[in-house]
Amino acid sequence: MRILFTGGSGKAGRHVIAYLLDQGHQVLNVDLHPLDMEGVHNRIADITDAGQMFDVMQNYTGLEELEPGTGVPRFDAVVHFAAIPRVMIRADNECFRVNTIGTYNVLDAATKAGVPKIVFASSETTYGICFADGTRRPEYLPVDEDHPTEPEDSYAMSKVANEVTARGFQRRTGTDIYGLRINNVIEPHEYARDFPTYIADPSLRRRNIFAYIDARDLGQMVARCLQTDGLGYEVFNVANDDHSVALTTPEIIARFYPDVPLTREIGDTQSFYSNAKAKRLLGFAPHYGWRGHITL
């Protein structure tokens, strides 16, 4: 596929692009900073500028596309990851502005260019737990896509707004648009660096609902979205199968969630952040995890 990828120079994006390249796809990375990776074309552009998004959406990716003399080919898919990545990096209103206006511009340009598939990054924060003031628990466990999205911070608010925007574009155009509520992204080197601390103090993982997604499995998730047609508008939780601490599920529940209802049984190491929908509709099957990197 010929894919336009926004935000591919970031932590998550560069791993997803590497996965897509390994799958044989052609990728144009649209970012404020180029990605130094063999096989990737880069375009410096600002997602908050509608004109720039319309330009890159209907333009060549590299000089080799000039050779056939048949004009600009259409993108087969857009993967939109570009964003202010969390609160406390930019002013709150700027975080909300960049993330919402940027997403609107990308969706608008993509659908008007006739791109048939759009995958965009939403977030675990939409459930209102990650950046809550104080302790906030899920309404039930495991957290699935039907759980209420009630954020109280500008980043999570922007992600909920983006989901509403994406649903509106899908309704108007019929384009397949899939949103990914991505949990805490972990790169391979972070297991040895960070997880011993999480094992020593499991409370550090409370805001992430004790879940995570390996960056390489996030690449697989995006690829599965690109391969699966006809779902219309859908959102998917994206997490690995297991939770991220050495406690058992009953121990985590007793310590952190004693009064939270369970909608089903959860295995001793199973994630509280359900990926069942992605498995059922997309065939998602995580391969990596911290237990293969850390010896207890």
Automatic annotation (TrEMBL):
Residues 3-238 form the NAD-dependent epimerase/dehydratase domain. SUPFAM superfamilies: NAD(P)-binding Rossmann-fold domains (SSF51735). InterPro entries: Epimerase_deHydtase, NAD(P)-bd_dom_sf. It comes from the Bacteria. PANTHER family: NUCLEOSIDE-DIPHOSPHATE-SUGAR EPIMERASE, PUTATIVE-RELATED. This is NAD(P)-dependent oxidoreductase.
